[in-house]
Amino acid sequence: MNNYFDSVAAEWDNNPAKIERATATAQQIKQLSLASYDSVVDFGAGTGLLGVQLRDLFQCVHLADASNNMLEIAQQKIAQAQLTNVHTHFVESLADIPGSHSAIVTLMTLHHIHNVGEFFAAAYQKLQAQGMLVIADLYAEDGSFHKHNPDFDGHNGFDLDELCQKAKQAGFSITKAAPYYDIRQENRDGVDTVYPLFLLAVVK
């Protein structure tokens, strides 16, 4: 998976749809009411399309990813804009992130994580009391979304009710669970297809 993201990093920000998606997600996060705005971890941050947009909301933004090439581009953005409160971290898992945080956000990352239960448990450990985990990801789909990535071996989206149950089992309370954005792209048959995204916000 990391090799795929390393290979596409240089062109990642050239896709207007990815920028629009990140902006829509940032707007949703800004509408949520958090107990603290000390620090946020954008897990699976890539080039920082989402996390950088949260720099005025949180005192400190941590862009965490397992792709060095993605993080290099994020670091170039940070340097160019002279952002003093945004930092990059190479991590293989959420458990690798140091400290505790006000919020953890993920955009189109969870479906790449094999053990979702472990992810929720790690997020719970990394959040401050009343900290919030925000997951933006795909509803269950037929597997055609990743037709461009033959090595994809993650989840074909999620049943939101089942995901809410996993969050509750980890100790979280549900704040919001609703659709908020549609991705439009061709499926494997070349047919223009809508892939809806949900926003799940849970509190420790």
TrEMBL record:
<protein>
    <submittedName>
        <fullName>Class I SAM-dependent methyltransferase</fullName>
    </submittedName>
</protein>
<keyword id="KW-0489">Methyltransferase</keyword>
<dbReference type="Pfam" id="PF13489">
    <property type="entry name" value="Methyltransf_23"/>
</dbReference>
<dbReference type="GO" id="GO:0008168">
    <property type="term" value="F:methyltransferase activity"/>
</dbReference>
<dbReference type="InterPro" id="IPR029063">
    <property type="entry name" value="SAM-dependent_MTases_sf"/>
</dbReference>
<keyword id="KW-0808">Transferase</keyword>
<dbReference type="GO" id="GO:0032259">
    <property type="term" value="P:methylation"/>
</dbReference>
